[in-house]
Design brief:
Layout: E1 2-9, E2 24-30, E3 33-40, E4 49-56, E5 70-76, H1 80-85, E6 89-93, H2 104-112, E7 113-120, H3 123-131, E8 133-150, E9 155-162, E10 166-176, E11 179-189, E12 195-203, E13 216-217, H4 219-231, H5 247-254, H6 262-267, H7 282-288, H8 293-297, E14 313-321, E15 324-330, E16 343-349, E17 369-374, E18 377-378, E19 413-420, E20 426-433, E21 439-440, E22 446-447, E23 449-451, E24 463-465, E25 468-470, E26 473-477, H9 479-485, E27 503-508, E28 518-527, E29 541-542, E30 553-558, E31 600-608, E32 616-617, E33 623-625, E34 631-639, E35 649-658, E36 662-667, E37 675-678, H10 688-693, E38 703-711, E39 719-729, E40 743-753
Parallel strand pairs: 1-7, 8-16, 33-40
Antiparallel strand pairs: 1-4, 2-3, 2-5, 5-6, 8-9, 8-12, 10-11, 10-14, 11-13, 14-15, 17-18, 17-19, 19-27, 20-21, 20-26, 20-28, 22-27, 23-24, 25-26, 28-29, 28-30, 31-32, 31-34, 34-38, 35-36, 35-39, 37-38, 39-40
Length: 777
């Protein structure tokens, strides 16, 4: 080991600027590596000369007898990366410069300790140490932002629910050309309210991108730089570019070798520059490159003059939930907060992988029940209007409601949500179908669920709330009663924090024991329990609506999709077959068409120049020649069962797909290139609201037979075209999008040749005598 002994001289610092509380660091450095260091702190305002001793292992090259010189750096007490990049006091020490002694002991003593005297600190550089390094504070919160419906005000609003126990990381982003670096500067764990707090120290550093290890390439910035270079006809970089900053990129742009420091060239494996060239500077490159406000806004050098006197921060957050760690928030480089202030306040919106605590709620009132949601649909938006027309059980029936969220029936397993009074320990559910007498909802249609609570360090295991027999009744325990039976549950702010406060049960309308589709009315029967947790018979009551004397109920119009399909149509002359691929054993129609009539859709016929002399039909896989004025008429059907329980067609579209990911709509609710008409059904839509305006009897639309007419000019080129007919019903489970829930589709393909566009593929037709002519068939 070798020891360098010296004295840090602070006598040049004016009294008004001298800060004895500032910790200083003296380090021995070689090739940007700290070999050894010591931290110094003045004993008081009067101490201006600080002795130091730094031990280190002298750097020896392989086979060498004498060590390489080292540099002594003095600056504020920072981590190695910031310390090496900050302006510091430098003192070069040649460890092999002293003459060799005759005595081995004297030589050993000289090698072990080397005195360098005083190292003076200039007032200007000391001032930088005070001003260039600042402490930053980030206060934040990470939340799940959900829509919440207020039935009193009949309006939607945001609800921010806290995400507890999440690890939030703050990363500094540095950019140079298309390379970038990310360095974690601080991290913190969110509390039960989703809040986090972090502090860190940051210094204004010298620009040394060549010496930053492990850069990454930003593909978005790379693509934009390529566009700028291509527009200016400048040399394009090799693809993919190298992993490290390459001086040759800029040498090629400047038309010669740039004036780069020798160490940089050597580090890049480049020969020393022997001839003058344009200087490598932001100004020199900007003079050559086209202006790019977009790249300047993204802080990409050289469009933006680089400095790093404030952190440029992005956030990333993870959370352990459901037995795994998930990334619940992550920002891209494009979301960087450039030059943040010393105090930054942020709110981060977590993704759907986060586990959050419901908070936008009031405690439940006793002796009543309030139903709030069916899935994601507010109960307030489910109609109780018996009409006419009878809209009971349909969701979103207001005149302002629009497709596909209009007159929606329900299907499947429905999450019934609400708040039940704290004096209710158990409840069961009763149903009435189409006005029939009330009966208990049987299991498994009366289905349970699971929830968990916050322990302070994470979530508890899931706790089942499922129907069980108690005193001869099939009932579910309420959340309040579970808390009463388990008084040791951890509380925060006077309550147990559950991840789910309002699920009451699941109404699985697909289960045996229920008559299929119809209008179901639900009500609730509640009980209190005695000390043995048995139902108190005298406490049985129909649970009323909170604030009213009537029973709390909800109407649900149920329409589940039946797996049935008509027998195949074998087709005939010009008739396109339908259902040939359907198998009644496997209940499958292959990969495209669905084995159901809820809804059904198919193309029946296609005619070229229908109703004109020389009309001809088009079959699947045909090649059809179209002049711009030729017509192509597509006859198709979109239907759902014509029963009082159904008639819930929502809409359809017809699209032509061709080439590489290209398409145009022939029919859609917002228009389309074709002319739509009944064939003969007059309520042709293509959306439910449009069908109502055409005479469909609300809330039924059964669909029918339609046609749409195109012209040859509607087809953009000579190509194979696939016609995709897509139909859907208005059904939802309270959350699902009806346009992708109960759906069906039909596909048919053929090739269109446009003579004026592809004459080499489409020569003029010949008449029977063999003479070419445009009027020949």
């Amino acid at each position: 080991m070798t020891k360098i002994v010296g004295e840090l001289d602070l006598s040049q610092i004016p009294d008004a600027e001298y800060k004895p509380e500032l910790e200083l660091r003296v380090a021995v450095v070689r090739e940007d590596s700290v070999l050894g260091s010591v931290v110094l702190k003045p004993a008081g305002a009067k101490q201006r000369r600080l002795p130091f001793e730094v031990e280190f292992t002298p750097p020896l090259l392989p086979g060498a007898r004498r060590p390489c010189p080292v540099v002594v750096l003095a600056g504020p007490n920072l981590a190695d990366r910031e310390f090496l990049a900050l302006d510091t006091v430098r003192h070069v020490v040649d460890l092999g410069a002293a003459p060799e002694r005759a005595a081995a002991r004297a030589a050993a003593a000289t090698a072990a300790q080397l005195k360098i005297g005083a190292v003076a600190v200039d007032a200007s550089i000391y001032r930088c140490w005070l001003l260039c390094c600042r402490t930053y504070t980030i206060n934040g919160r990470i939340v799940c932002r959900h829509w919440q419906y207020d039935p009193r005000r009949h309006r939607w609003s945001f609800c921010d629910e806290p995400v507890p126990g999440a690890m939030v990381e703050a990363w500094d982003v540095d950019r140079f050309w298309w390379w970038f670096w990310r360095d974690e500067v601080a991290s913190a764990v969110t509390d039960v309210n989703g809040n986090f707090h972090m502090t860190f120290r940051w210094c204004c550093l010298r620009w040394r991108p060549w010496l930053r290890p492990n850069p990454a390439i930003d593909p978005e910035v790379l693509a934009r730089i390529q566009q700028v270079l291509a527009a200016a006809q400048l040399p394009l970089p090799s693809i993919p570019p190298g992993p490290d900053p390459d001086p040759m990129v800029f040498q090629r742009l400047l038309g010669g070798a740039a004036s780069l420091p020798g160490p940089v060239l050597a580090a890049a494996g480049l020969p020393a520059v022997q001839q003058p060239a344009a200087a490598l500077s932001a100004q020199g490159l900007r003079a050559l490159l086209p202006a790019s406000p977009e790249l300047a806004a993204l802080r990409v050098w050289p469009w933006w003059e680089w400095d790093d006197c404030a952190p440029d921060v992005v956030f990333r957050a993870t959370q352990r939930c459901d037995g795994r760690v998930s990334v619940i928030y992550e920002e891209s480089n494009a979301q960087t907060r450039w030059d943040i202030p010393t105090t930054l306040n942020v709110t981060l919106i977590a993704n759907d992988q986060a586990c959050c605590l419901p908070s936008c709620r009031d405690p439940e009132c006793p002796e009543c029940l309030t139903l709030t949601w069916v899935g994601c649909t507010p109960v307030d938006l489910i109609s109780t209007n018996a009409g006419p027309p009878d809209l009971r059980g349909y969701a979103r029936v207001a005149l302002a409601d629009a497709d596909p969220w209009k007159d929606n029936p329900f299907f499947g397993s429905l999450q019934i949500r609400g708040g039940v009074g704290w004096d209710v320990d158990y409840f069961k559910v009763q149903i009435s179908r189409d006005g029939a007498p009330w009966v208990d909802l049987p299991v498994p249609a009366f289905a349970g669920y699971a929830r968990r609570y916050w322990t302070g360090g994470g979530f508890s295991p899931y706790i089942d709330f499922t129907p069980k027999n108690n005193s001869g009744q099939t009932v579910i325990m309420t959340r309040h009663h579970y808390e009463q039976l388990n008084p040791g549950l951890p509380q925060f702010g006077g309550q147990v924090l559950w991840d789910d406060y309002d699920t009451l049960f699941y109404f699985d309308s697909t289960q045996p024991g229920l008559t299929p589709d119809g209008l179901y009315e639900l009500r609730f029967v509640g009980w209190a329990a005695d000390a043995a947790d048995k139902l108190i018979a005298s406490s049985e009551r129909i649970l009323p609506t909170c604030g009213q004397d009537t029973a709390e109920r909800v109407d649900l119009r149920i329409d589940n999709q039946a797996r049935v399909h008509p027998a195949p149509s074998l087709g005939g002359p010009c008739k396109i077959p339908h259902g040939l691929e359907c198998n009644p054993v496997t209940l499958s129609c292959g990969l495209i068409h669905q084995y159901t009539v809820e809804p059904d859709c198919y193309i029946r016929e296609i005619w070229k120049n229908e109703g004109q002399p020389g009309q001809s039909c088009v079959a699947a896989c045909d090649i059809v020649r179209l002049e711009p004025t030729d017509t192509l008429t597509i006859h198709f059907s979109v239907t759902c069962p014509a029963t009082v329980q159904d008639g819930h067609l929502g809409g359809y579209w017809l699209r032509a797909e061709y080439g590489a990911s290209q398409a145009f709509y022939i029919v859609e609710a917002g228009g389309g290139v074709g002319t739509l008409a009944g064939d003969p059904t007059s309520e042709f839509g293509p959306g439910y609201s449009q069908a109502l305006a055409q005479g469909a009897p609300r809330p039924q639309w059964y669909g029918g037979d339609f046609k749409v007419t195109l012209h040859g000019s509607d087809f953009p080129g000579c190509c194979a075209y696939l016609l995709r007919l897509w139909a859907w019903k208005r059904t939802t489970n309270g959350c699902s999008d009806p346009t992708v829930t109960h759906v069906n589709q039909f596909e048919l393909s053929f090739t269109v040749l446009r003579p004026e566009m592809c004459p080499d593929l489409c020569p003029p037709p010949r008449d029977p005598s063999g003479a070419a002519g445009d009027n020949a068939p």
